[in-house]
Amino acid sequence: xxxxxxxxxxxxxxxxxxxxxxxxxxxxxxxxxxxxxxxxxxxxxxxxxxxxxxxxxxxxxxxxxxxxxxxxxxxxxxxxxxxxxxxxxxxxxxxxxxxxxxxxxxxxxxxxxxxxxxxxxxxxxxxxxxxxxxxxxxxxxxxxxxxxxxxxxxxxxxxxxxxxxxxxxxxxxxxxxxxxxxxxxxxxxxxxxxxxxxxxxxxxxxxxxxxxxxxxxxxxxxxxxx
Length: 226
Description:
The structure is a single chain. The protein is an all-beta fold. It is built from no helices and 18 strands. It folds into two domains: 9-127, TolB, C-terminal domain (Neuraminidase); 134-224, Sandwich (Immunoglobulin-like), CATH 2.60.40. The protein has a four-stranded antiparallel beta sheet, with no helix packed on it. A four-stranded antiparallel beta sheet has the order 5-6-7-8, with no helix packed on it. Strand 3 and strand 4 form a beta hairpin. The radius of gyration is 18 Å and the shape is globular. The model has no long low-confidence stretch (mean pLDDT 85).
């Protein structure tokens, strides 16, 4: 594949200042980025982000802060301008497309199967840099039979109300690990690969998502191998 040839491209968008062009290679889940020169030429193709999981990535939109919203396995993947996943909007089915709506353009409408989902954005993902917590990658990953998830609540916080839940790639909740007030400091919680009923879940890719009561969200991927 050269710099302008694709197998099955789908989502396409510009950065807010139109200095960069992003194209999604749907079957591979790879988002490429080019520099736009003189409003007419693209050059310097690089990989911007790869959507994890099994399934097609699809429609893609950008917000005024330059964050990307790409539909793919498990939901809509929110990616910062630096190419870092900062959130995953979980959807019950693998979504196919998304677009902004409502007068203030702060609502994301998401198509999936025969349904349209409406997701009202928090106060602004672009404003979520004053993190009320820092969620780390689980270890070990992949894991069997258990893994540990660490997170930090800054000393500037008096204690925050958070939830930590595990989801499968279809957006179905598997288990709630935390739901309540957490004090400042370093914390960890384990997951033994079981669901809320205590039954073992199948091998595969899972998402763990921590959310605070002020709307800040962080989502990461882990792999269970039985």
